[in-house]
Amino acid sequence: MYHIYEKMPHNSRVWVYASNQTLTNIQKETINQQIPAFLAQWTAHKQELYASYHIFYDRFLVLAIDEQLQGASGCSIDASVRFVQELGKNIGVDFMCRDVFFKENNETLKQISPLKIKNAVQNQEIAFDTLIFNPIINTKNDLETSWQQKAGESYLKKYFF
Q1: What is the pLDDT along the chain (161 residues), one digit of tens a residue?
Q2: How many other C-beta atoms are found inside a 10 Å radius of the C-beta of residue 98?
Q3: What are phi and psi of 102, to 5 degrees?
Q4: Are 61 and 91 in contact (CB under 8 A)?
Q5: N or C: which end of the chain has fewer CB within 10 A?
């Protein structure tokens, strides 16, 4: 069952899919047309899921469900991953991008291959205070409070010490 993202509870479970490129207006229109239809029929153990989505920074697609009403199952999660992969293929993007995303000068969104992080830190392209996007979040509250972190206080801290 599709619901407005802003009305989802803070403890809603979330999945963040990062696009390998900035989404165009046409791509976002397609997403906005297709996702509500998927969420309206998304189920777990034949029970409707109270679900929503949001696009952040024209790069991140976030799916959310209120698990207090009905929890996700392995099959329902698999169905959402297949849907997002197919959606990405249809609009020409890869939502399974595993790059590290950060804000250059804490403003402009940039991405870098995980294999290049060590060099980016050594070259000060990514500094201790650079805001990075933490891919390891589970709830809407996490998204709002700890999705963006200082690189030196994140899972990248090993490169600073």
Answers
A1: 888 999 999 999 999 999 999 999 999 999 999 999 999 999 888 889 999 999 999 999 999 999 988 888 889 999 999 999 999 999 999 999 999 999 988 789 999 999 999 999 999 999 999 999 998 899 999 999 999 999 999 999 999 97
A2: 11
A3: -150, 165
A4: no
A5: C
**Residue that is written with structure tokens 């990062």 in the block:** 18
Name residue 102's beta-bridge partners.
Answer: 110, 132
